[in-house]
DNA sequence: AAACCCCACAACCGCAGACGG
DNA sequence: GCCGTCTGCGGTTGTGGGGTT
C-alpha cells in the first residue's frame, strides 16, 4: 500500500472525507486565496490548511490546469496547432515539455487536443485506407496492431510519439518499447503509423510555409488574449511574480457586484 | 422531440523522481 | 545509502454540451 493510500485511509479514519469531482466556485476562491498566501509549491500543506478536504494533488491540478493566471482559454490557434505538431513529432508525448513552449497552454490541454486530433486523424486514415484498398494495403489487416478499433474509445496505441523515443522515466520508456513491440509483430510499429500521420501533417505544413525551428519555438509567443478572464481583471501578470513579491501581492478576495474578482492584501482577507 | 454521437474539457490515478532527514 | 514525503508527469476516464440523425 502506498503512502498516499495509507494517508487516504487515515483521513477516512479521522472522519474527513476527501472530496472528489468537480470544483465549486467557492473552492476555487479558497484555493486561489491560499495559493496567494503560501505560493504554488506546498500543495499538501495548502490542501491541509485550506480546509478544502481535497488532496494536494487535486489542488495542484486545479491550479495548474484551471486557476493559474495567464492561462489561455478557447480554441488552439492554427499557429499553436502547428507548433504542437512540430514539437510532438520531435519529443513525443512529453506534454509538459511541449506545454512550456506554448505560453498559456497546459500539458493537459495539449494532451487532450492531441488525443482528439489524432483520433480523428486515425479514423480518417482508416476510412481512406479501407475505401482505397481492401487487400493490398501495407496496413495489413492481419496486423492486429494497426486495426483501428471501430469504437472510438480509448486507444492504447496513441502512446507513441515523435521520431525520438523520449520518456521521463524508465517505466514510461519501457511502456513505449512494449507498445512498439506489441504493435510490431510484422516489422511495422505503431510509431511508424503515427509518424506517417505526423508526416502527412508535416507535408501539408511545409507546403505552405516554413517549418518552425527550435529557435522559433523558443521565441514563440502567443498573441494577446482576446477575451478577458477573471485574472485579467485582478492580477494581469502580477501573479507570475508572486513568489518574488510575497509581501506586496494582491490576492483574490471574492467577486464584486458585477461579478468581477475583488482584490485585497492578504492581511485583509478573512476566510471564515 | 428524442436518441445518439462526437468532442472538448476536467479530473483522477499510478508511477517515478526529487529532496530532506 | 535508506526511507519517508511530496511533487510532477503521462495516461486514462468521466461528463456535459452541441450537433446530427
Automatic annotation (TrEMBL):
Instruction: Show the ranges annotated as biased composition (Low complexity).
Output: 130-141, 160-171
InterPro entries, per database record:
EOBI/EOBII-like_plant, Homeodomain-like_sf, Myb_dom, SANT/Myb
Positions of the HTH myb-type domain: 15-67, 68-122
Q: Which is one GO molecular function term here?
A: DNA-binding transcription factor activity
The compartments listed are:
Nucleus
Q: Where is this region: Disordered?
A: 116-188
| GO CC terms | nucleus
Which is one Pfam family of this protein? Answer: Myb_DNA-binding
Which keywords does this chain's UniProt record carry? DNA-binding, Nucleus, Repeat, Transcription, Transcription regulation
Q: Where is the Myb-like domain?
A: 15-67, 68-118
Its annotated function is as follows:
Transcription factor.
Output this protein's name: Transcription factor MYB59-like
Amino acid at each position: 500500500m502506498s503512502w498516499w493510500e495509507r494517508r487516504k485511509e487515515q483521513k477516512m479514519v479521522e472522519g474527513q472525507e476527501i472530496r472528489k469531482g468537480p470544483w465549486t466556485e467557492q473552492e476555487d476562491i479558497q484555493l486561489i486565496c491560499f495559493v496567494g498566501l503560501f505560493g504554488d509549491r506546498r500543495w499538501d500543506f495548502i490542501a491541509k490548511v485550506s480546509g478544502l478536504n481535497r488532496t494536494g494533488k487535486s489542488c495542484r491540478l486545479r491550479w495548474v490546469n484551471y486557476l493559474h493566471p495567464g492561462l489561455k482559454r478557447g480554441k488552439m490557434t492554427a499557429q499553436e496547432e502547428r507548433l504542437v505538431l512540430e514539437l510532438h513529432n520531435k519529443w513525443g508525448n512529453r506534454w509538459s515539455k511541449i506545454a512550456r513552449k506554448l505560453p498559456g497552454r497546459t500539458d493537459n490541454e495539449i494532451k487532450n487536443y492531441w488525443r482528439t486530433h489524432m483520433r480523428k486523424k486515425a479514423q480518417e486514415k482508416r476510412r481512406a485506407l479501407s475505401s482505397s484498398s481492401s487487400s493490398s494495403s501495407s496496413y495489413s489487416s492481419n496486423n492486429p496492431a494497426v486495426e483501428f478499433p471501430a469504437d472510438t474509445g480509448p486507444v492504447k496505441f496513441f502512446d507513441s510519439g515523435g521520431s525520438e523515443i523520449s520518456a521521463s522515466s524508465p517505466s514510461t520508456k519501457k511502456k513505449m518499447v512494449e507498445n512498439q513491440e506489441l504493435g510490431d509483430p510484422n516489422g511495422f510499429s505503431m510509431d511508424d503509423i503515427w509518424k506517417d500521420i505526423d508526416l502527412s501533417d508535416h507535408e501539408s505544413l511545409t507546403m505552405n510555409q516554413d517549418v518552425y525551428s527550435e529557435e522559433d519555438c523558443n521565441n514563440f509567443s502567443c498573441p494577446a488574449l482576446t477575451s478577458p478572464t477573471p485574472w485579467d481583471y485582478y492580477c494581469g501578470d502580477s501573479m507570475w511574480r508572486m513568489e518574488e513579491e510575497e509581501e506586496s501581492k494582491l490576492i483574490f478576495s471574492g467577486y464584486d457586484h458585477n461579478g468581477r474578482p475583488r482584490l485585497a492584501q492578504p492581511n485583509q482577507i478573512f476566510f471564515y
